[in-house]
């Protein structure tokens, strides 16, 4: 979570890794210069924001939605794609973050920084609110995950689905948070920099984690739990870590969403929202971050292109999912995880 | 530790694994019945028996996949019943599976690397921060993994997904992966299954080599009598979950109960 500049010492170490690793493996660029790439992405987000006045508001709106969906899909990919746990609760975690951070900026911040704070203070408060939202969502992740991760496949899907629905009912019944009508008047803090900066950090975190000896454990859990345990991997622990990190970023995405749409209501975080994110992960190819990012972009643009068929959007999603599972179970964008031919002996 | 001293004074190696009166029932079926097994340090023991005798079940008991209905299991003098499989692996027991269970989507290299989990210092935070310590550790691991892969002639398959390896190589990779957890006791479940005669000879050399190089104990389940008789100095015979014989290959081969169990199959 530290967008800090890599020190020259670390850069040197990273480069010597590149020399030792003679043969290419995995996503090379990311594996060799992860921090440099993160920094570049953060700078690009900043530039994008800097020129956001020159961007057609309609496109800027789509860009924000794309960025938020990237955060959601990439973080869910850690749970569903890499670790192989079928969670249908991502919209639930998103709503926890959205409501929590909105509550922080609306109800807590004014008493902290006064009615007319400086820009710096406002920004600091917003970042704090996002983090608090993410942390509360992460705690929700533990609460849902810890008892239910012993469950396999369908059962876990049902529990996480139930969690999403329960969370909605809870928010609907808190008058202070707007109840069924929703919460209005959230301050407009979200911009292109925050959205794409977070998307960059989220992608970095997931990739850095997975591209480590520690992180290979996530894929081992997905591949074969029995074998993973037999190799000394605490599978329950890995699942919880994936859940917590996934929920954390879903919570932050929720916070960004709330401070962009300026009003949130429980209906916006329903089961179909979770399904949308799951479809992005499946379409992108489970455990293929690049593919998932492309899928998030595609599935945000698609409804825009098909505006005239707006009411059929969900039918389209379902249809896509079915066609995809039948024709390309490895995902639409699974070009890299292709099985290499066996080397000649 | 009293029992260890006792065995030492009798000139035998210290006890590593000790099963006492172990029984496990699945519903009405008693898969293993009142089993007593003792394995010493740096010992190569064979476990044989007809199909369904309960050999794999013994492995599952020792590695914590199942809990015994009765009896106790000690490793290095400590009770391990009730511990999770990964905790037992941490104590120093590693295994292979009768039906190969590699991590199919991971590369050969990553299959072995994943088994270093118990011995790495970095965790979530270090993996994200990627500081000097993390990079150095990953380089060290790379060196160790490649060394092991080269020893076991799998180096050239480094980046190949495990699932697309030839069968015999998959079996070998599973052994390498188990060794990467740095066990004191290695459990091999029918490693020769599906191998041709040449591969079997290589496997026998390999198991002896492992025992000598890594100075560990091996418990070998194997149907191929030539392999078992060829490398084990002590053999335990199970039939219908009951131990019917124990001794040197010659003793076991001449035992009428063993002959009956195999002929009456
Ligand atoms: N989880 C289980 N539930 C019910 N029965 C089981 C279970 N595991 C094993 N058994 C039964 O226990 C008996 C012993 O099985 P086990 O797999 O240990 O035999 P084995 O000696 O390894 O045989 P093989 O040589 O065929 O591998 C068999 O009758 C088997 O059906
Ligand atoms: Mg068996």
Describe the structure in your own words.
The complex is a heterodimer of chains A (345) and B (265). In chain A, 70% of the residues lie in helices and 1% in strands. Chain A is an all-alpha fold. Chain A has one domain. In chain A, helix 4 (57-82) runs parallel beside helix 8 and helix 4 (57-82) runs antiparallel to helix 11 (235-261). Chain A starts with 7 loop residues before the first helix and ends in an 18-residue tail after the last helix. Chain B has 265 residues and is α/β, with parallel strands linked by helices. Chain B folds into two domains: 2-92 and 183-263, P-loop containing nucleotide triphosphate hydrolases (Rossmann fold); 111-182, no CATH class. Chain B is 41% helix and 23% strand. A six-stranded mixed β-sheet of chain B has the order 6-7-8-3-9-10, sandwiched between helices. Bound molecules: adenosine-5'-triphosphate and magnesium ion (MG). The site of adenosine-5'-triphosphate has 12 residues of chain B, from strand 2 and helix 2.
Tell me the layout of helices and strands.
The complex is a heterodimer of chains A (345) and B (265).
Chain A (H helix, E strand, L loop, with lengths): L7 H13 L7 H5 L1 H17 L6 H26 L7 H24 L5 H30 L4 H20 L10 E2 L7 H19 L5 H8 L1 H6 L4 H27 L1 E2 L6 H14 L4 H17 L7 H15 L18
Chain B lengths: L1 H8 L5 E12 L2 E12 L3 E5 L6 H8 L7 E6 L2 E2 L5 H7 L1 E3 L12 H7 L9 H6 L2 H20 L15 H13 L5 E5 L7 H18 L2 E5 L3 H7 L2 E6 L2 E6 L1 H6 L1 H8 L2
Helix pairs in contact in B: 4-7
Bound molecules: adenosine-5'-triphosphate and magnesium ion.
Adenosine-5'-triphosphate binds next to strand 2 and helix 2 of chain B.
């Amino acid at each position: 979570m530290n967008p800090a500049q890599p020190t020259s010492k670390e850069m040197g170490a990273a480069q010597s890794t590149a020399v030792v690793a003679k043969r290419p493996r995995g996503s090379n660029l990311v594996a060799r210069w992860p921090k440099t790439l993160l920094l570049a992405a953060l700078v690009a987000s900043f530039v994008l924001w800097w020129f956001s006045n020159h961007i057609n508001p309609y496109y800027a709106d789509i860009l924000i939605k794309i960025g938020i969906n990237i955060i959601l899909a990439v973080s869910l990919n850690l749970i569903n794609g890499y670790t192989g746990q079928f969670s249908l609760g991502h919209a639930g975690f998103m709503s926890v973050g959205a409501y929590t951070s909105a509550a922080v900026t609306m109800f807590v911040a004014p008493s902290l920084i006064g009615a007319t704070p400086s820009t710096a203070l406002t920004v600091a408060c917003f970042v704090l609110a996002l983090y608090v939202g993410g942390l509360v969502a992460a705690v929700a992740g533990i609460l849902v995950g810890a008892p239910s991760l012993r469950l396999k496949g369908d059962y876990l899907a049902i529990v996480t689905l139930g969690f999403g629905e329960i969370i909605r009912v809870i928010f609907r019944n808190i008058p202070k948070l707007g109840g069924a009508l929703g919460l209005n008047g959230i301050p407009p803090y979200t911009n292109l920099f925050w959205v794409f900066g977070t998307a960059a950090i989220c992608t970095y975190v997931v990739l850095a984690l997975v591209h480590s000896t520690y992180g290979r454990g996530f894929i081992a859990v997905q591949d074969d739990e029995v074998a993973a345990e037999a190799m000394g991997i605490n599978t329950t622990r890995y699942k919880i870590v994936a859940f917590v990190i996934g929920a954390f970023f879903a919570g932050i995405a929720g916070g960004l969403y709330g401070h962009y749409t300026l009003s949130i209501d429980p209906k916006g975080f329903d089961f179909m929202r979770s399904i949308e994110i799951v479809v992005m992960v499946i379409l992108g190819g489970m455990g293929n971050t690049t593919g998932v990012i492309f899928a998030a972009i595609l599935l945000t643009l698609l409804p825009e292109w098909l505006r005239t068929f707006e009411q059929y959007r969900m039918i389209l999603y379902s249809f896509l999912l079915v066609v995809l599972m039948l024709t390309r179970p490895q995902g639409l964008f699974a070009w890299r995880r292709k099985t290499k031919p066996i080397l000649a002996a | 530790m009293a029992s260890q001293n006792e065995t030492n004074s009798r000139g035998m190696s210290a006890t590593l694994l000790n099963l006492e009166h172990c029984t496990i029932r699945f519903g009405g079926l008693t898969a293993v019945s009142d089993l007593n097994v003792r394995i010493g340090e740096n010992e190569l023991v064979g476990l044989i028996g007809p199909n369904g005798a309960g050999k794999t079940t013994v492995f599952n008991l020792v590695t914590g996949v199942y809990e015994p209905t009765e009896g106790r299991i000690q490793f290095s003098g400590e009770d391990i019943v009730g511990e999770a499989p990964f905790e037992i692996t941490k104590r120093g027991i590693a295994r292979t599976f009768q039906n190969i269970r590699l991590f199919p989507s991971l590369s050969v290299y990553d299959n072995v690397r994943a088994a270093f989990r118990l011995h790495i210092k970095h965790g979530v935070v270090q993996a994200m921060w990627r500081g000097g310590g993390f990079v150095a550790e990953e380089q060290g691991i790379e060196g160790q993994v490649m060394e092991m892969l080269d020893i076991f002639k799998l180096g050239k398959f480094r980046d190949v997904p495990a699932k697309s390896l030839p069968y015999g190589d998959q079996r070998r990779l599973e052994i390498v992966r188990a060794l990467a957890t740095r066990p004191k006791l290695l459990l091999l479940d029918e490693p020769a299954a599906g191998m041709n005669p040449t591969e079997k000879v290589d496997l026998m050399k390999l198991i002896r080599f492992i025992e000598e190089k890594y100075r560990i104990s091996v418990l070998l389940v194997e149907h191929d009598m030539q392999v078992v008789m060829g490398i084990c100095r002590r053999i335990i015979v199970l039939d219908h979950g009951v131990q019917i014989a124990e001794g040197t290959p010659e003793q076991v081969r001449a035992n009428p109960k063993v002959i009956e169990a195999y002929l009456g199959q």
